[in-house]
Amino acid sequence: MWKDGCLKVTKITNALARQIHLKWWSKAKSNWIGEGEKNTKFFHNLVKMKRRRSRVEEIVVEGKVIKDNNEMAGSFANWYEELWTFFEERRTNKVDLNNFEWVRISTEDCATLEREFSEEEIWVAVNSLRRGKSPGPDGFILEFYIQCWEEMKKQ
After folding, report:
1. Model confidence over 22-70: pLDDT tens digits?
2. Helices marked H in 69-118 — which ranges?
3. Which superkingdom, per the lineage (predicted)?
4. Which of 3, 24, 53, 71 could bridge across to 43 with cysteines, CB 3.0–4.6 Å?
């Protein structure tokens, strides 16, 4: 009975350690360390280094150094507001396409552009991607698609 309890605790501890390892591995987005590496401290330090490197300590706006976080936030907001105003003004200006010389593509090129991707082309593209990376926006890692390729083909 006691032995069964110890086994259960060991399994739970190992599962938790694995989850922590995967969390830090994913946050570190380390491509060059294989899945076999179990050094969570290493990944934790990688994340800390990335945070330090990506921290903005100061910015220079029109020759003036700004270190205050609120002033920096205001400067960023102003910059983006000016940027989007610029694009909005350009977007509302009509472009005259009457004098534009259109280049025609051949019927064969047109057919090539409109055809469906072949299964082989998709498989080559999937296999050319780098393995061991963080999940994409859909939450799945590349290895999932490779492992489930036959099933996904049917969909």
Report:
1. 776 666 655 555 544 556 777 778 888 888 888 888 999 999 999 999 9
2. 69-92, 107-114
3. Eukaryota
4. 24
Enter the pTM of the model. Answer: 0.34
What's the chain's length in residues? Answer: 155
The two structure tokens encoding residue 24: 């830090």
Question: For the chain, how many helices (H) and strands (E)?
Answer: 7, 2
Centroid of chain to Cα 100: 38
Cα gap 125→117, rounded to integer Å: 11
The CB-side HSE value for 90 (13 A sphere, CA atoms) comes to 6
For residue 106, give both structure tokens. Answer: 């051949």
Q: Taking the CA of residue 93 as centre, how many other CA atoms within 13 Å lie in the half-sphere pointing to its CB?
A: 7
